[in-house]
Please model this.
Amino acid sequence: MARTRKNTQLFALRNPPPGLLAVRGRRYELAKVFKHDFFAATALYLAGEPGLVPNKLVVKFGREQGFCGLGGHWLGRCLLRRERRFHRRIDDTGAVQRWVAQISETAYALEYVEGRTLDTFERAPGDGGQFFENLRKVVDAIHARGAAYCDMNKRSNIVVTPDGRPVLIDFQISLLYNQLANPLWRWLLRRLVAYMQQMDLYHLYKHKLRLGPGLATAEELASADVRRHGRLIRLHRRLTTPLRRLRRAFLSRQYRSGRLVSPSARLEDHDQPEKATWRK
Model:
C-alpha cells in the first residue's frame, strides 16, 4: 500500500524545531511545541543546566521552507523584523511578553510568562473587576505608544499570571504607527491603527461581558455592541467569514486524507482550539 504523502508546505518548518539551542551562550532543550502553522512554529525550551536564568524561554521559528516553488525565508525574516520593532516600542510597559534575543535570521527567543490563558477560565479571574481594569491599562499603554494589538479577540493570547495580572503575548499581527514619507500612506496608516485600537477595546469588553456580565459599565456595554461599529464590522465579517470557511474546509479535507500532519505533532499533545475547527 502506498504511503500518504504529507503536505508539509502548510507548515513553517519541514522538520520539528531543533532539540538543542544556544541562546546568549547558554544551552536550552526543547520541551514542547505550543503551535506550528503556516507562518511560524512556537516552542518551549528549558534550561539545560540548573540555576540558569531564565530557566524557560519561548522560541518562535519564522517560516523557512518554500511554498508552491517560492522561497520562504524572506517571510520569516520579515516577521522577525516586524515583531522586533513592535517589542522595541512596547516592552517597557511591563505587561507584555518581552523580547530576549535573536537566534537566527528567522528565529528569536521571548520571555516565558507563567500562568493560565484567559480561554481556560469560565468566570473572570480573581476580583474580576480589578482584572479587567488592569487589562484595560495594558491596552491603553500599548495604544499610547502608537500601536494596536489587533489580536484581542483571542482569549488564548491573554495570560493570567499566578498573582492575577494580565499579560499579552504574540504580536505577530499587531500594527505600529510610523511617520511614513508619503502623506497619503501616513494618513491611511493613522486611520487604520486608530480603528484597530477601537477593535482592541471592543473585544476587551466582549471578554468582560462573557466572563463577568455584571461587571460591565453602561459605556462598556455600548462599546461592545456591534451596532455601534456598524458598517465596518459588517464589511469585515462579509469579507473574512467566507475566506475562513474556505480555509477550514481545505484544511479539513487535507486532515481527513491524512496529508495534514504537523512535522512536530508528537510535541503538540495539548488542546489547540484553532486546529479543532478543522479536525472535526
Notes: Residues 24-112 form a domain with the Phosphorylase Kinase; domain 1 fold (CATH 3.30.200.20). The mean pLDDT is 84. The longest helix spans residues 226-256. The chain is about 40% helix and 20% strand.
